[in-house]
Amino acid sequence: MSEDSKKSTSNGWDKEQMDKIDELRRLLGPLREKLSIYCSDASIARYLRARNWNVKKATKMLKDTLKWRLEYKPEEIRWDEVAREAETGKIYRSNYADKHGRTVLVMRPRCQNTKSTKSQMRYLVYCMENAIMNLPQSKEEMVWLIDFNGYNLSNFSVKLTRETAHVLQEHYPERLGIAILYNPPTFFEPFWTLVKPFLEPKTANKVKFVYADDPNTMKIMEDLFDLDQIESAFGGKDNEGFDVNKYAERMREDDKRMPSFWARGHASYGEAAHQPLLPTGFSFNPTKSKLDSDVSDEKSGQVFISRG
Question: Where would one find coiled-coil regions in this protein (predicted)?
Answer without folding.
Answer: none
